[in-house]
Amino acid sequence: MSKRSVEVFTAGCQLCDETVKLVRELACSNCDVQVWDLRTESATNEGLEKAAQYGIHRVPAVVVNGQLAECCQNQQPISREHLIAAGIGQG
Fold first, then answer.
1. In 3-state terms, what secondary structure has residue 11?
2. I want to staple 36 with a disulfide (CB 3.0 to 4.6 A). Which of 15, 17, 46, 47 is the partner?
3. By the 8 A CB rule, do 59 and 11 touch?
4. Sheet of 31-37, strand order
């Protein structure tokens, strides 16, 4: 089975930290998790460019295999169920 790319965009807030923790709990051996910190003092050009490419306007946000998770597209709270539906942790 191929690797699943999971990108989490954060800004250092409590909700962002909880999202990173949840993604890491759910991630399986086929999930390659990358966390992008978008705070001004920590942000890299690559992270900022990726956020713009995905159309991310608020954080936390989760992208799976290049697709912004549906909950993030609809500005819903990120939940365990949303992340599983996006494909995180599915073997």
1. coil
2. 47
3. yes
4. 31-37, 4-10, 61-64, 67-68
CB contact at 8 A, 35 and 20: yes
Render each residue's pLDDT in the chain as its tens digit; 91 residues.
Answer: 578 999 999 999 999 999 999 999 999 999 999 999 999 877 889 999 999 999 999 999 999 999 999 999 888 899 999 999 999 987 6
Phi, psi of 76 (to 5 degrees): -95, 160
Calpha distance 78→62 (Å, rounded): 8
The owner of tokens 């608020």 is 58
Strands in 23-83 per DSSP E: 31-37, 61-64, 67-68
Spatial CB neighbours of 7, under 8 Å, sequence gap ≥ 6 = 33, 34, 35, 36, 50, 62, 63, 64
Cβ count within 10 A of residue 73:
13
